[in-house]
Design a protein that fits this description.
It is a single chain. This protein is of the alpha/beta class. It folds into 2 domains: 13-191, 3-Layer(aba) Sandwich (Rossmann fold); 198-261, Helicase, Ruva Protein, domain 3 (Orthogonal Bundle). The chain has 10 helices and 9 strands. The longest helix has 11 residues, at 114-124. It starts with 18 loop residues before the first strand and ends with a helix.
Length: 262
């Protein structure tokens, strides 16, 4: 099933529209989600390839949010199925906290807003909810990296604090209309309870981002931007870490411990 036909609206570069050509590209993501009998919130249905696969796999309802009105109307004609609800809107503004934990979220995300949408879902969606997103492969690498990996950074730590993440499939440029200049990947996320209280989240996020401010600097040298050097050194020592340790060597548990002693 291809993404578009001769009567479909033009694709807009300004919206980062790269539609999937065929359903098999999204199959690993739908397998991960397990959509049978569930409500699925789809972000950016585009040409409807993923939408059709969700319906074929037995989703009880698909709520599809599309920013481009012309494609929303095109999909209304393409999908007369009563299980689908199409709406014009910006996925960055959705109230993900209102989604039930049994729901699923899926989407082919525009590269320029992908991290923003992922962060919003992880910070607002309920524990237990699963999501699968198609993003630039470098973003998928950052979401799923291990300590010490080149892609490991603040995004990785903050993602692990709120979700179990894994890469599901790589999607090559030729799988899209039009082909993007980069390779993409599906990443699967399952919301988990964070190891800190919600009222502490902003402070924890600030600490993690500070720790990775300058990757070539030690953790100590990054922390002195927000606290006195003796206090930063004492906090690192309290964790039993070497003075010259860098942030990429710390796992989530160590960042939580660091947060507690800072």
């Amino acid at each position: 099933m291809t993404a578009s036909g001769k009567s479909d609206p033009p694709l807009r570069r300004s919206l980062g529209q790269h539609h999937l050509r065929r359903a098999e590209s999204a199959s690993p993501a739908v397998d991960f989600l397990g959509v049978s009998g569930r409500t699925v919130i789809e972000i950016g249905p585009g040409g409807g390839v993923l939408t059709r696969l969700l319906l074929e796999r037995g989703a009880s309802r698909v709520i599809a949010c599309e920013l481009d009105p012309s494609w929303t109307f095109a999909l209304r004609r393409r999908f007369p199925d009563r299980r689908i609800r199409l709406a014009v809107g910006d996925a960055c503004d959705l109230s993900y906290e209102r989604a039930p934990a049994a729901a699923r979220i899926a989407g082919n995300l525009p590269y320029n807003v992908a991290t923003r949408i992922v962060s919003r879902v992880l910070e607002r969606a309920p524990v237990g909810l699963r999501a699968a997103f198609l993003v630039q492969r470098e973003v998928a690498d950052r979401l799923t990296a291990a300590p010490g990996d080149g892609a490991y950074g603040a995004m990785t730590v903050l993602t692990r604090a709120r979700a179990a993440a894994r890469r599901l499939a790589v999607v090559m440029p030729g799988s899209f209309v039009p082909p993007p200049a980069v390779t993409s990947a599906f990443v699967g996320l399952e919301r988990v309870a964070p190891p800190i209280e919600e009222e502490e989240w902003l402070d924890f996020k600030a600490l993690v981002r500070t720790a990775f401010t300058r990757r070539r600097k030690t953790l100590l040298n990054n922390l002195v931007a927000v606290m006195e050097r003796p206090a930063a050194a004492a906090a690192i020592s309290a964790l039993g870490l070497p003075p010259m340790v860098r942030a990429e060597a710390l796992g989530l548990d160590e960042f939580v411990e660091l947060f507690r002693v800072c």
